[in-house]
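Progress against Task 2.4 (sequence-to-structure conversion) is shown through the following example record, which the project officer requested during the mid-term review.
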Amino acid sequence: MNAGKWAVDGEDHRPRTVRAALFAFVILPWLGCGLGCKSDVSMRLAPLRSILEGPVRLRMDQTSVGLPLIEARVNRAPPRLFVVDTGTTDLILSRKLIGETQPLALATSCVMETPTGPKNLGPVARVESLQIGSASFHGLNAGVVDLSNLEAGMGCELGGVIGMGVFADCRVTLDYPRSELVLEPLSDAEWSEKSRDAAVVPLRLSNTGVPFIPLRIRGATVWAMLDSGYGSAFWLSRDTVSSLHLEEAPIRLPGYDPTFLGNVSSFAFRVPGSVFLGPYEFVAPIALTNFGSSRTPGIGHDALRHFAVTIDLQKKRVRFARPDATPIGPPPPVRHWGFYFQKEGNFGHITGPIEVANLDRLGLEVDDRVTAVNGVAISQLSGPDLQRLVDAHDMLFLTVIRREREMLVRVPVTILVR
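Structure tokens generated for the chain above:
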């Protein structure tokens, strides 16, 4: 999760595919700056006590928008789904579930610095225990936050967000290929620094404890937030984008990305050349930016999903394991159906074109009612379903009702990023 004010070693920095971004691309962009409570109580980032007798392995689900989910229990409450977010240090609890977890209230005002100014997130609470598999973490402070906007984008109910502060006393591995989360005591066997199928890179911590790792872009080193709570492969800052001298300006993605603090917009572009993570090469990846934000660079799910990522906060290093050392990418072009619509029962009510499209060219009009796409009823199509049709075909066939007449309209797919 990328966020507000950062200082990495005295310098200012900032951070499932872009295809998923076009409909339900979820990021948690402002947790990473950490929470500051306007009271006598401060956020405790690390647990008072961690009980981890050996390696703990548990299933890590990956949502359609790329966020890793695990089951965890708070204060002996029933297990709930939590996002594992390396881009924040904090433990966040859903305000809706506070009745069943019953944490001890500590403060009434929890304020976070964000790119748009201070945000009051609500109260802070003391968590007696957080159970993850057979591992348990005790004496944590947690922000209590309304996650309804984030849940709407993900399509599931959340217990909260688990940040890196919880894992201060252990090593954590997000093994994306195996869909597994692994927790290990720090006393376990050390890594081998040299391996054919893995690379170890240094780690810097922001002033709130969020990990940053080095990327190489066109010969320059860029420190990027290691952010499992971010769906795209790469987020680049305004300054980095300017230095790339792009032949085509970044394209604003349709719609907004839902976060628990509101909606944000993003611009997509293809990076000329390659991005390197240690010895691993990403060829001409698609990255996002936002010209109205001061976020530092970040690396997210669509890049991390190729690896088993092991983070050791105490030794300040990250291990990326991948048996296949061949270059990754380039990813396919970013495609879209070209218009905004609002579902109303069995219809998709067209409200206008996306910024780079034209309804006349698409053969559509505002207030057209779409009943089917390629013969499938619009009521049976989710956003990802529609995106899959867009990715598979250069032309869509829309059944449209216009001024009480039904017609079949051939709609060419819109290419956003080539």
